[in-house]
Amino acid sequence: MKRISKIIACLAIVALAATSALAAEGGNPKKGKYLYKKNCKVCHVAGAAGGALTPLSKTQRQWDRFFEKDGHKAAPEAIKSFSPQDLKDIQQFLYDHAADSDQPETCG
Amino acid sequence: MRKLFALLLVAALAVPATALAAPTVEDLQKKIQELSAELEDISDRVDRNGMHAATDRISWYGDMRVKADTLHYKDVTWNPGILVDFDDFGAKAMSGAFGDPADPTSPLGKMLIQNPDLATAFGMGLLSGVGPFAFPGGQKSDINNDILYTTRLRLGMKAKVASNVNFSGRLSMYKNWGDSTGSKVFDSWNSFTMDGTDGGNTTGDWLRVERAYFDWKEIGGSDAYLSIGRRPSTYGPPTQFRENEMRGGTPTGHLVNFNFDGITVGYHLSELTGIEGQTIRFCYGQGFESEWGNGELFNDNSVNTKDTHLGGLNFDALNDGTNFLQFTLFRAMDVNDGFKGVIAFPNQFAALFAPTLYQDLQKFPNFNFVTRVQPSTVIGDINLAGVGFTREEMNGIKWFASVSATQTDSNGKAGMFGGMLSDAVFQAELNADGSEIIMTPARATSSDKEEGYGVYVGLQIPAPAGKLGLEYNYGSEFWTPFTQAQDDMIGSKLATRGQVGEAYYIIDINPNMFIKVGGLYYDYEYTGSGSPVGTPHKIEDVQNGTAFSMLPAVDKAWDGYASLTVQF
């Protein structure tokens, strides 16, 4: 029994470790979508200053890199008003709907 | 590539320190380290992307689920019997068509000897009109399958054919542990392995094509699209919540969870209406092929089927990621009294209908013969309609409500198991050599239209480490949806004529891996859930012997389960 407990404990630690290793964790994608639509789409539609941009424009890894390294270099002032949690929410939304994320399986 | 990076590094070093705004050596070294890391990262990704682009034309993904169920059936009643046209029987018997009743070697004499109760009633002139002819062998019991393990492997694939043409497919294997036969003893419609349900029915360790289709989008620069092939017609909304995955199919899962081959022509209306995600589709499919592969060239009148064609409209009125509203209208024309499939023949049927065969089978009690079955008769049409709404709240709460209706339109014809939501009336005939009286289905007990309805509601709330879900559904007496491919072990819960409650807890280990524990409780009110064939009889009537059911009738059942799913 002790051995089984140890195995279960190890599995739990591995599961936790695996979870913490994943990017874009902890954001609220629903809030992120709301914030993105309200704030980002002003500039990120076809013909606007920022050009067309949707979650499908990048892969999950590219979105993570954008938030972790780029920080919206092209126009840093555009995201100044966001709190760290706001940014996390937006990152989560974009990550969850990225080009390589799970997509609805329909015929169109 | 490495040479290029080295040159870039040298170039970076050559940039004047003032330009880098990092005047100290330490800062410079730090910058170099960051650049090196960045370049290594880029190099790694470029290499992998280059390899992928050069060698892969299909992107693969998938999921694997291992599941343990404990299944418990209460008051399973098998009370076999058929309805017989005794007026026809009496007239033929009196005319001598079945031989002399006093002669024990005549067909009628042999039948009366085998059925003494029938002989008594016949002698007293009590047999008239259409009445039940009960078979011996009725029984009632509880059945427990304490543990049943299954593995479901689904391999999804996608390929970009052109900028506006995609291919999608999914291969699936679904098996119970220790079984690779792919055919089960036919004891319910749920056990019947057939085209429409292969993806949700344990069918051995074979990969089957659950779906494979092309999408041709933005045709001629418009928002119209065309999709052809084996449809994404399983796991549609709102069933994705209990599956803990994204929407898994196009039509509502409350009415359709069934594999179909066909065509969808759709149009994304959002640009016209400004309503996010609005899409309208016309779907056409074929659910049964009557001529090809059925021995039609023998020109045998014993099988008289037609192709079953399906058509309908599916309208996503709103799909903005928070709210989803969908309407469905669907019609199945020329529905037959079954599908092509493979079954292991229950020996109990042989005991009732094929005594000569059964005599041999008794020598091999653990043998069932596996046979291909096919329908014999067109029994009518089915109309389906439904409206479903789901909402995913900002705080993580998800809920849905769906109301659907079905209407069956019987043509009054029947095969061996009955007509459209009606039983078969059998007439007695002599077999080919005139030595035995056999019963053949002559007509259905009814040619009425029957309406049924189903209600399906559910709620999923955030819980520590995951989600907690509660679902309830009810189906009325004549409720006849196409959800038989739903892979619930006891049977599609949404096809139940009665009520089903489900509670589950999903533990999200990471975004691609979760554990689900839960339970389903079925309370059947009528027989025949999931089948358009045969009159739905009250379960209590089957139990007390006033109604008959050729297949075992289950009163109540529950299924406790635990599963681990990995998506990759």
UniProtKB/TrEMBL annotation, chain A:
GO function term, MF aspect, one: metal ion binding
Keyword Heme part of the UniProt annotation? yes
A single Pfam family it belongs to is Cytochrome_CBB3
Which N-terminal stretch is annotated as signal sequence?
1-23
Q: Where is the Cytochrome c domain?
A: 27-98
UniProt keyword list:
Heme, Iron, Metal-binding, Signal
- Xref: PROSITE patterns: CYTC (PS51007)
InterPro entries (alphabetical): Cyt_c-like_dom, Cyt_c-like_dom_sf
Q: What is this protein called?
A: Cytochrome c oxidase, cbb3-type, subunit III
From TrEMBL, chain B:
Pfam families listed in its UniProt record: DUF3373
Query: What are the protein's UniProt keywords?
Result: Signal
Output the superkingdom of the source species: Bacteria
* Signal peptide segment: 1-21
The protein's matches in InterPro entries, at most eight in alphabetical order, are given as:
DUF3373 (IPR021803)
Name listed for the protein in its UniProt record? DUF3373 domain-containing protein
Native source organism of the sequence: Desulfuromonas soudanensis
